[in-house]
Design goal:
The protein is built from 23 helices and 8 strands. The protein is mainly α. The chain folds into 3 domains: 262 residues, no CATH class; 127 residues, no CATH class; 101 residues, Rossmann fold (3-Layer(aba) Sandwich). The strands form 2 sheets. Strands 5-6-4-3-7-8 form a 6-stranded mixed β-sheet, sandwiched between helices. The protein has a two-stranded antiparallel sheet with strand order 1-2. The termini are far apart. 40% of the residues are buried.
């Protein structure tokens, strides 16, 4: 049988079983009272059936048994130890769902299962030391297992992230050297993805069933075990071998680390539950629950894509993609860290200590040390990237000593230019067009000063002018992008967070209309969702203001109200002819739509 047809049949069978078993398990769980009840430290607000992990595990197991009949001989045999150890972890989670085991008991059970799996050959080989590989393997498996357990905090999140991770694992196996029809990784992953997707039909918001610890511990353990398999990753470089598995499991790893740091910072127990995960913070800033989950799906897809690049392409391309992805993630989670999800009276460990507060303020804010460190990194990385893009193969190797020789000069020149033009006097979240002009001047001065110094010292012999042209664009992008990051994230969040408000049209696509739009986006208390503008000036038709289109004039008001389910119209211009305004008010009155002046709307 064609191996790809085997994978497809395995996926389809597992999906069908999971989709059929999940509602049955839900019915049994409700009948037996196995439900997750709302609590202060939990997200859901209504009793919801548990035991979804039983459906996932059963569908996976039954499909695996059937697949053995038509799969290549021995394809799944080498993964039998992983299945058996994952089964033990599943039972551990099931017992916890029913009887609520102490955390230390669950941890001991996970360590026993992980150590058993490692002893049976499922072990990472990152280091020369056999002992170090063994300990790190156990730590990796237990850590990923608990990361998925913590990630299961919102409808569809853990199952969706596990599905995306499995998908990229399968893609990486496909491009791995030596992959053949007899490989069992793709069969295991196909079965696993089918079971997850069938369950996700009932677990995505609004969820009618939760997977419970039996599900989250099982999927975390299974994924961790697959990533330790020595045939999954092949690379001539050490970096991708370590980073690729971490990128595939980026969201559970990052969320666990993020929550641990934030709880430690606020003096809260890491072991206790809470509504302070990444998903909760996204909802806290106004995103609907579905969009919060989809946002984390997006980061998981991006991390998986970078991992695929690391497994399939050269180290240079991978390094570039990795740095950009990590920078975007850094800025995004720094933004989330500013969201207050703990009670107002709670202070950080730093805020509770006057001495630590003084050190923190002096070190990070007044002296802008972190900002300087970031620029040092971006300037250096951007200069290397310019050489990487300009030269290929032997030419890059030949010019690398030139890069190293001039890097201190470029770094000093740019830091001097940034300081001279006041780059470090700006506030990131208020970055404006005037700041962008300053950045252009600073980057241009940095490039010119670098060239002049190199010309004076080395007469620019053997140096490429094209490198500095490329570098100018890269450095400007990095400088402006880093400073605009908080503003762009905030703008994106505000636009999405307004999606559940009363839908409004703004009458007047001028300065006052733009002001009204900014006020609606910035002031969540208004609970308004801007749809677009109407204006009687036909020249403005289909023009956009901050991404919102001018949809028409007063003659289209009735159609727009019906089409876009408009609840209010905000008049944001004094130049509207009284007759046109009266016509609009009459139409709105007939359709039950409120007409307000700008001043009344923003109070």
């Amino acid at each position: 049988m064609n191996p790809y047809l085997t994978y497809l049949l395995a996926f389809s069978l597992s999906f069908a079983l999971s989709a059929a078993l999940t509602p049955l398990v839900r019915r049994v769980a409700l009948r037996r009272g196995q439900v997750a009840r709302p609590r202060d430290d939990r997200w859901h607000t209504r009793p919801t059936a548990l035991m979804g992990g039983v459906a996932i595990f059963t569908a996976f197991s039954l499909a695996m048994a059937v697949t053995l009949l038509f799969s290549p001989a021995g394809a799944l045999a080498k993964f039998l130890p992983l299945f058996l150890c994952a089964f033990l972890v599943f039972l551990l989670g099931l017992i916890d769902d029913i009887y609520h085991l102490p955390p230390q008991t669950k941890l001991v059970g996970q360590i026993i299962a992980a150590a058993t799996l490692v002893s049976l050959g499922f072990k990472i080989n990152w280091f020369v030391s056999y002992t170090l590989n063994t300990f790190v393997s156990v730590f990796w498996i237990v850590g990923i297992t608990n990361a998925f357990n913590l990630l299961d905090n919102m409808d569809g999140l853990a199952a969706g992230i596990a599905f995306i991770s499995s998908l990229f694992l399968a893609l990486i196996v496909l491009v791995s050297p030596g992959h053949g029809p007899g490989e069992g990784q793709l069969l295991i992953l196909a079965l696993f993805m089918g079971a997850l997707l069938g369950f996700l039909l009932y677990n995505f918001h609004p969820a009618s069933i939760f997977m419970g610890d039996s599900g989250s511990l099982f999927i975390g353990f299974l994924l961790a075990g697959i990533t330790t398999h020595q045939r999954v990753f092949h690379s001539g470089h050490f970096l991708p071998i370590i980073i690729v598995p971490a990128l595939i499991l980026f969201i559970p790893i990052l969320d666990t680390g993020f929550v641990s740091v934030m709880r430690t910072l606020f003096g809260r127990s890491i072991a206790q539950g809470g509504k302070d995960h990444s998903s909760h913070r996204l909802v806290a800033i106004g995103l609907p629950e579905r969009k919060a989950v989809l946002t984390l799906y997006g980061f998981s897809l991006a991390g998986g894509t970078v991992a695929f690049v690391g497994a399939a392409y050269g180290i240079g391309i991978f390094f570039v993609c990795l740095v950009i992805f990590l920078l975007v993630s850094l800025f995004f989670w720094l933004y989330l860290a500013r969201v207050r999800v703990y009670p107002d009276e709670e202070k950080t460990v730093v805020e509770r200590s006057k001495a630590l507060t003084r050190i923190w303020v002096d070190f990070t804010y007044r002296r802008r040390v972190f900002e300087v460190f970031l620029d040092v990194w971006l300037i250096s990385f951007g200069y290397w990237l310019s050489y990487f893009l300009r030269f290929e193969g032997p030419a890059y190797v030949a010019n690398f000593p030139v890069f190293l020789k001039t890097l201190p000069i470029v770094l000093a020149s740019f830091m001097l230019a940034y300081f001279a033009f006041g780059v470090y006097r700006g506030v990131w979240r208020y970055t404006s067009v005037a700041d962008l002009i300053t950045y252009v001047k600073a980057v241009t001065s940095g490039v010119v000063l670098s060239i002049l110094i190199i010309l004076f010292l080395y007469r620019f012999q053997g140096y490429s002018r094209t490198v500095f042209v490329i570098y100018w664009g890269i450095c400007l992008f990095f400088l402006a992008g880093s400073r605009l990051s908080f503003r762009m994230i905030a703008e994106s969040v505000r636009r999405n967070s307004a999606a559940n408000g009363r839908r409004v049209l703004i009458y007047g696509a001028g300065d006052k209309g733009e002001f009204a739009l900014r006020e609606i986006l910035n002031n969540q208390k208004l609970a308004l969702t801007p749809v677009g503008f109407i204006d009687d000036d036909v020249r403005k038709l289909r023009k956009k203001i901050q991404g919102y289109k001018v949809l028409g004039g007063r003659d289209r008001v009735a159609d727009l109200i019906v089409k876009h389910r408009i609840r209010e119209i905000i008049v944001a211009s004094r130049n509207i002819h009284p007759e046109n305004l009266q016509t609009t008010c009459t139409v709105c009155e007939q359709l039950g739509v409120i007409v307000r002046n700008l001043e009344l709307s923003i109070k």
